[in-house]
Design brief:
The chain is of the alpha+beta class and about 170 residues long. It contains six helices and eight strands, in the order E-H-E-E-H-H-H-H-H-E-E-E-E-E. The protein is elongated.
């Protein structure tokens, strides 16, 4: 269920707390194959279910860790709607750990915990350099869990800039 947050300032009140949980996303064989094609990572552990079942402890093919990580924007979008936001820039991740494999066919969702919120930049509405415009610099822990498991599959610190709508 999407959490609706009235403003960026209202988001700041969640620092240190879990504040949203995303919808479930199923990791399908088709997604894994398309990701492999896009990234040129055709390692058999992701694409050959029979071999992966025989030669790994995972019982079958597993998704690429980077495929799991690439779902973070979708998880964040389904988990939260922050009113009054214009531009969003993904700055990357400060920390990423793949803590458990994701079997093809698994359903994943993410829990969001706001780690930090800081206003940065200038209030000058005419600032031509978007990097110097006033924005919220936000770090969110994204804990991705697999349905039916107590152990997360990925824990990452996502860093984004959110600019107020102009």
């Amino acid at each position: 269920m999407t959490v609706i947050i009235e403003s960026l300032d209202a988001l700041a009140s969640f620092v240190g707390r879990e504040y949203a949980v995303s919808d479930w996303i199923e990791v399908t064989e088709d997604m894994v194959r398309r990701f492999a094609d896009l990234t040129f990572d055709h390692q058999w552990i992701h694409l050959d279910n029979d071999r992966a079942a025989r030669e790994t402890p995972f019982g079958g093919a597993i998704a690429h860790g980077l495929l799991t990580l690439s779902l973070v924007p979708a998880f964040m979008q389904s988990a939260q709607q922050i009113k009054g936001v214009g531009l969003i820039i993904n700055e990357g991740f400060d920390r990423v750990r793949f803590t458990s494999p994701v079997r093809v066919g698994s359903r994943l969702r993410a829990r969001l915990t706001l780690q930090s919120f800081e206003w940065r930049g200038s209030d000058d509405a005419e600032a031509s350099d978007v990097r110097s415009r006033r924005h919220a610099h936000i770090k969110t822990e994204v804990c991705i869990e697999r349905e039916g498991s107590d152990k997360p599959v990925c824990v990452a610190e996502a860093v984004v800039r959110r600019y107020p709508a102009r």
